[in-house]
Amino acid sequence: MPEYPEVSLYLHALRARILDERLEAVRIRSPSLLKSFDPPIAHAHGRRVTSLSRLGKRIVFGLDDDLFLVVHLMIAGRFQWRKPRAPIHRKLGHAAFDFAHGTLLLTEASSHKRASLHLVRGVHALRALDPGGIEPLEAATHDFAAALRRENRTLKRALTDPRIVSGIGNAHSDEILLRARLSPVKLTSRLTGEEIARLHAAIRTSLEEWSARLIDEAGTDFPTKVTAFHPAMSAHGKYGEPCSQCGTPIQRIVYATRETNYCPECQTGGRLLADRALSRLLRQDWPRKLEDLEALRRPPGED
Q: Could you say which residues of the chain have pLDDT below 70?
């Protein structure tokens, strides 16, 4: 799912192409994409794009007449920039936003179509779509601390809950927690003031650096490979590879279709976190430390 850095990348590319341009038409192929009916989508036709902004993980197109188009890409939704009046892909295509000099296509490469489009009028209606999470790059540390401690959650869940923190998902939470040297399963109620300050600083630095990096890599091209993984990431998607900070193999916790990657040396004091699948299988034989796991992996008879 595009998170703060990936949404920032899209906004950067879109501002260069459609800001102050007139939206000629919105062509919708998937009726389930459109989640609003008043005002009707035809009211967006012919309106000038006056602003482009982020609302959590949503991309907001501000239009004339106090209208806002709000797109949530969800997990597999992506944008593509094509020639004017480009056709919508029969299988993956959701919608097309037509401008005089190009068409912005919205696609979703998934059998489960979760992307959404709203057209709303007025700032109050726009705010109603905001899950309410605090903006970590804008908030003071004490406000950030209050948001984290409002509910007693694990850090991983707190950082990825849009009602608590805005713009962070599965991938960048792994990077942030490694940078902050904090366990993904540590409870927010047990965080010290110093740990919260360290986490807040890690969020700011990580999101700013990744946003700048992605924009720099794309250059003047429209981004075509916006994914939840980047080869330069230190934790996310790096299971079994050496930690960039200490060299210890990155470990993971797998739950359903998601996984959390972490370094046991940097984040959990050498303790292995119980993987839901394997720990149920091994039960009392589940290794508690990295060296115990390595011993299990050695061939029989090897010291």
A: 256-257, 275-303
